[in-house]
UniProtKB/TrEMBL annotation:
GO molecular function per UniProt: ABC-type transporter activity
Pfam short name (any one): ABC2_membrane_2
Highest taxon, organism lineage: Bacteria
Entry annotated with the keyword Magnesium: no
Protein name: Uncharacterized protein
Alphabetical keyword list: Membrane, Transmembrane, Transmembrane helix
A GO cellular-component term linked to this record: plasma membrane
Chain segments annotated as transmembrane: 16-35, 63-86, 113-138, 150-171, 178-202, 264-286
Length: 293
């Protein structure tokens, strides 16, 4: 069961972190809003060496909000939420006081998890509304197909965040001391981020032998459903201009299609099922622990 009155009181202890991290996450979207196209594009100028290439809004979001920046922000945010809602109350004896009320231990934990989940859902929905409000206005190639795939991207990302938070919840609840749990959770996250950074480097440098490092991070469970041809496809053969003489304008890369059903069909249920299992196991650790005033 969930005590909604108690859950409402829990929001007060994380109100400031919610505001701050909502601002930071919104800021991670701002670079994508500076592009005129969702696709990578090349601005062809009549000035010698005046051509400019850009990765496009879709790729930028994959690097920032859906990538390293967003995942790192959510890791810090989840640690702060778990500490404020659970560890701080345990350390100060508040949790034992709540156990003296008619609420069961399971109800207290469910109410805290409800607070965490509603917080994540609310932030994600708010940022989803921002994306669907600004991107159609700021980009010239936003379409209904892209909108559907972007929605799928956000849903998959939210499941990844829930999984990431559940891992932190499991680790922190396993250890009696908050400092030990937070340290271990931080070490695990550094490993995840480290493997993901190696993968990004390998992808950009075309080091195929290092591409398998991505599987050392849970970020490998999130794949962008927005597929575009690389910028190199716009240049044609060496020494031969792919554009008509005197051409000036913007050329975007080809949209290669949306999500691969074979990937999302197993990745999304896996993330959701694993997150539920980790949350339940963390609850079991807490229920078996003794608390004192």
């Amino acid at each position: 069961m969930i005590n909604f009155k108690y859950a409402k009181s829990q929001f007060k202890s994380i109100k400031i972190p919610i505001i701050l991290f909502s601002i930071f996450l919104f800021a991670s979207l701002i670079p994508a809003f500076t592009y005129k196209y969702m696709a990578p594009y090349l601005s062809v100028s009549d000035i010698p060496n005046g051509n400019r290439q850009s990765q496009g809004a879709a790729n930028m979001m994959d690097y920032t909000y859906f990538g390293l920046v967003g995942c790192a922000l959510y890791f810090v945010f989840s640690i702060i939420m778990i500490y404020r809602l659970l560890n701080r109350e345990v350390d100060k004896g508040y949790f034992a006081v709540w156990l003296a009320t008619p609420m069961s231990r399971r109800t207290i934990l469910n109410s805290k998890l409800f607070t965490i989940l509603i917080t994540i859902f609310s932030i994600q929905i708010a940022l989803l509304i921002v994306q669907f409000t600004l991107l159609p206005i700021l980009t010239k190639d936003f379409s209904a197909e892209i909108a559907g795939n972007l929605l799928l991207f956000n849903i998959s990302y939210m499941l990844l965040i829930l999984l990431w938070v559940s891992i932190n919840w499991l680790i922190i609840t396993y250890f009696d001391k908050a400092t030990v749990g937070i340290s271990v959770a931080t070490a695990v996250t550094i490993v995840f981020i480290g493997f993901y950074m190696i993968f990004i480097f390998a992808r950009e440098a075309n080091f195929d032998k290092l591409k398998y490092f991505r599987f050392g991070s849970i970020r490998s469970l999130l794949n962008s459903p927005l597929h575009y041809a690389p910028l190199s496809s716009l240049y044609g053969e060496p020494g031969i201009s792919p554009f008509p003489p005197g051409f000036v304008g913007v050329v975007t890369t080809e949209y290669l299609g949306g999500a691969k059903a074979s990937e999302f069909a197993w990745q999304m249920p896996l993330m959701l099922g694993t997150a539920i299992g980790f949350y339940a196991l963390g609850d079991w650790f807490i229920c078996k622990r003794n608390f004192f005033l």
